[in-house]
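Thread: arabinose-5-phosphate complex, take 2
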Amino acid sequence: LNPKQDWIEEAKKKAALRAVEHVKDKFIIGLGSGSTAAYAIEELGRKIKRDQLHILAVPTSYQAFMLAIKNGIPITTLDENPVLDLAIDGADQIDKELNLIKGMGGALAREKIVASASKKFIIIADETKKVKVLGEKHHPVPLEVIPFASKSVMLKIEGIGGTPTLREGTGKVGPIITDNGNVIIDAEFGSIQEPAKLEDRLDSIPGVVETGLFIEMADIVYLGARSTVKKCEK
Ligand code: A5P
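Output below.
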């Protein structure tokens, strides 16, 4: 790790610790995906052991599932527990209204379902994820799309002024396939002035399963900085 990555990893860990402080005995918890959520899963495992908590967790991806097992966190499903007490997840961009872009790890559909099933949704990130306007710095909006529809969805994205790219895998040739058997299209729109409107338009395209725009979903955001963690609330 170079010194820059070093402080970012520490900031992510500190934010994760703050989120896990919200966990209480008998909670049903949604486990997010990505490198920051992974720190929260590890801390949750430690907390369960230390405080002898009875917790059940719904993972949002195969990654979160494997990490939960590794860290001794009992798993449940949304079928058994369709209402969660808390979900903790990372984000790729966060604006001042706490709207988010998520999905660079390809897990956005389950992440959004779990967040919407949860009474409280806490986001953890390092402060480099904070932006003035979602979509700035050419950041795309990831979309989970049914493979059959990928070409027609891409055309429709171009029709509303976006630039779509089918996400390719690393460690595998061809497109990446999500945990739900779908593809990811990264759609770039430049700075997004009206994210709620864009979310509605994208959601109405047949074949789009979910979008990475999370509008008015986060209740709390913990932003890790070099020495502190900033708490932002709705
Ligand atoms: C997974 O699909 C994403 O939504 C992640 O939550 C997001 O990409 C943040 O990941 P990192 O914590 O690894 O930056």
